[in-house]
């Protein structure tokens, strides 16, 4: 299965000059690197989606959005929709990121609406799931993951399910220096596969891509992504440095 390396650039790249420097540096760093078994997806702020998509050449990278509203059009001041994102050249959409769940009240119900809208527009949703530290300490990790997947993906028909990518991001590891062990990540990967096997059958479960996200760096990519058998990474801070994101892609690409 092709690996997926997603760079979540969050609310950064404040000027046109900064954006252009990022894209130039990304393309320069990519030259001559062996990442042919990976798809790299850059998710810039919405305002830069068009310029990022306009710079795609030779399948160097794909583009994803960080958020949408679930309606396609209408009186929703300030929002952007899945067809808009798709028509500008994006292919992926991050949904249910812990920062959106926490700061913008993105519930599983909201995640469900956004996933359906994304699939209808032909986007691949990257659905983030993960427990908080309190959940983990209270022994609720399994329950949280099960309900995030069951409720968030409740309306996805079996024919579309493999278009959804799952990113396991323990909330306490996102933007912090704490990371789970390989075994802890592997346990959740096995749980996610089981949820899909029980709901959609074994063949579907085998095809589902499961990424790890939360403090992934070149130095931790082996422990966090390769050893637990993940299908790639969702990278926050390190994706702001093109060289580091590409290093992570190389490590994961060459792990076989
Ligand atoms: P981080 O962020 O790599 O900075 O921990 C991950 C994410 O927010 O997806």
Task: Describe how the helices and strands are arranged.
Layout: E1 3-8, H1 16-30, E2 38-43, H2 49-54, E3 62-65, H3 82-87, E4 92-95, H4 98-103, H5 108-121, E5 124-129, H6 133-137, H7 141-152, E6 165-168, H8 182-200, H9 202-207, E7 209-213, H10 221-226, E8 232-235, H11 242-253
Parallel strand pairs: 1-2, 1-8, 2-3, 3-4, 4-5, 5-6, 6-7, 7-8
Helix pairs in contact: 5-7, 7-8
This protein binds 2-phosphoglycolic acid.
| Number of domains as seen in the coordinates | 1
Secondary-structure element string: EHEHEHEHHEHHEHHEHEH
Distance between the termini: 11 Å
In the CATH hierarchy, the third-tier topology is known as TIM Barrel
Helical run tally: 11
Q: Give the strand tally.
A: 8
* Ions and ligands: 2-phosphoglycolic acid
Strand order of the largest sheet: 1-2-3-4-5-6-7-8
Question: What structural class is derived from the secondary structure elements?
Answer: alpha/beta
Question: CATH homologous superfamily - what is it?
Answer: Aldolase class I
Give the CATH architecture.
Alpha-Beta Barrel
Q: What characteristic shape results from the CA principal axes?
A: globular
Largest sheet geometry: 8 strands, parallel, barrel
| Secondary structure: helix percent | 40-55%
- Spans of at least 5 consecutive residues whose pLDDT stays below 50 are none
Please give the CATH class.
Alpha Beta
